[in-house]
Amino acid sequence: MGKFINPFTDFGFKHIFGREMDKDVLIEFLNDLFEGEHVITDLRILNNERLPETEQGRKVIFDIHCETDKGERIIIEMQNREQPNFKDRALYYLSQSVVEQGVKGTWDYKLAAVYGVFFLNFTLDEENETGGNRIASGKGEKFRKDIILADRETGQVFNPKFRQIYIELPRFNKKEEECETDFERWIYVLKHMETLERMPFKARKAIFERLERIGSMANLTPQQRAQYEAEWKMYNDYYNTIDFAEQKAMERGMKKGIEKGIEKGMAQGIEKGMEKGMEKGMEKGMEKGMEKGMEKGMKKGRDEGLKEGKRSVALNLKKMGISMEQISGATGLSLEEIEALE
Question: Residue 202 pLDDT > 90, yes or no?
């Protein structure tokens, strides 16, 4: 366990950004996120739980939900593992914050702006990526996606009151000395915080000195430390289980791929060898067959291992008494899949 807390555990994320007493940290981060657009001078942390209007409705729990001094609503979420339909989930969360602004009776439908800020410890799929302002990392990777309501042809903003910002942490590859903006410095610190021996950028921006005190393991109360260590163990166990499952799956996939590749390669080699010469045909066929067989085997093995790992983690969490909604949020499994685990 390092000198600083892991900001991507539930405790760590809310300890840094979700406390009213330290809201200046959240304000500074958001102002660096929206630099050049507008400035937040104050905000209040809202209740993060949204109960459904009907018994059949679904309860929504945000990681952090706040309101700025201008009435803007901002939802901030941390997602460690990819989930099915995550983009739809993000849209649903923001829609909840829009709908709850409705007023019964006569109302002119004037809404406060709603923003969603999503930290992702995985990368979104590349399919149909269009539009939006992005910030590129040092390796040419675009780790920030800004999704807005705009005219498809001209790019002109149609309504500025609904916006989603996705921060894909695996795409951010800059080193400490390569960070050019305060926003990039935030991302560098958050991504590497658990392994840092010192807090960088303190001389450049005072908030990082504040972040050092808040995030220091030494400054946690005994109760806070116990809660953090319990969550850190769950977080670490989850990743170790997934990594082990992936490793075993890859080993099985490689073995199966090699066997299948040899078998297919020999068959192709014999067939081509009969046409162009046995020796040359077998060599070429085995090479091509082994390559394709290994690729397919490794992919299939990795997919099977991930699924197996998620089920194993979900079962352990279920035995610990963790709610099925939290287990679903952590593993990406559906409630039906979790309920069926024994």
Answer: yes
Side chain identity at residue 155, one-letter code: G
CA distance 103 to 109: 8
**Rounded distance between C-alpha atoms, residue 162 and residue 90, angstroms:** 12
Quote the CA–CA distance of 186 and 179 in Å, as a whole number. 9
Nearest CA-CA partner of 42 in 53, 52, 31, 55: 31
CA 69 to chain centre: 28
Query: Are the CB atoms for 114 and 162 separated by under 8 Å?
Result: yes
CB 172 within 8 A of CB 183: no
Does residue 29 have a pLDDT over 80?
A: yes
Count other C-beta atoms under 10 Å from residue 261's C-beta: 23
Cα 147 from Cα 132, distance rounded (Å): 5
User: How far is the first Cα of the chain from the last one, in angstroms, to the nearest whole number?
Assistant: 32
Contacts 24+ apart (CB under 8 A), 263-266: 263/289, 263/293, 264/289, 264/290, 264/292, 264/293, 265/289, 265/290, 265/293
Share the mean pLDDT of the chain.
Answer: 80
Strand 134-136 with 142-150, pairing: antiparallel
Identify the H or E element spanning 137.
Answer: none
Q: At residue 293, what is the residue type?
A: G
